[in-house]
Automatic annotation (TrEMBL):
Function: The globular domain of the protein is located near the polypeptide exit tunnel on the outside of the subunit, while an extended beta-hairpin is found that lines the wall of the exit tunnel in the center of the 70S ribosome. This protein binds specifically to 23S rRNA.
Subunit and interaction comment: Part of the 50S ribosomal subunit.
Official protein name in the record: Large ribosomal subunit protein uL22c
PANTHER family (UniProt xref): CHLOROPLAST 50S RIBOSOMAL PROTEIN L22-RELATED, LARGE RIBOSOMAL SUBUNIT PROTEIN UL22M
Family affiliation: Belongs to the universal ribosomal protein uL22 family.
Amino acid sequence: MIKIIKKKVEVYALGQHICMSAHKARRVIDQIRGRSYEETLMILELMPYRACYPIFKLVYSAAANGIHNLGFNEASLVIIKAEVNEGTAAKRLKPRARGRSYIIKRPTCHITIGLKDISLDEYEYSDYLTCSKKPGLINKNTNLTCRDTYSSGGLWDKK
């Protein structure tokens, strides 16, 4: 008999040396962090930024890793980690007047996308769905990213 212990299983996709600045990729990554997989694909298809296409490919690749390798359910995938780090600057030479050349530095970035199947451990996300309704009362189990964060006074009660 094989015993399967429920673990926190996450799948990742890493894109390195993507030719764009990290700042431009971060404004797209901030929009998709914490969202479901299907909602993320719709957002990335409709946003007008150039950074959306490589991020779309990475999200799709991470989901394919989870579905093929670990048997995840596509409908219950959630983006748990989305980060952008600066890469090395690609150096190019541009010809200038009188036979001289100037270096042009093109920024690159490394993008990491992490997905998790929430259907595998529903008990862990029960705290995410419930949060305290009384202002000022914050339990240790309460996650401040729930819907009533602003009405509960959890983040903004300091003056």
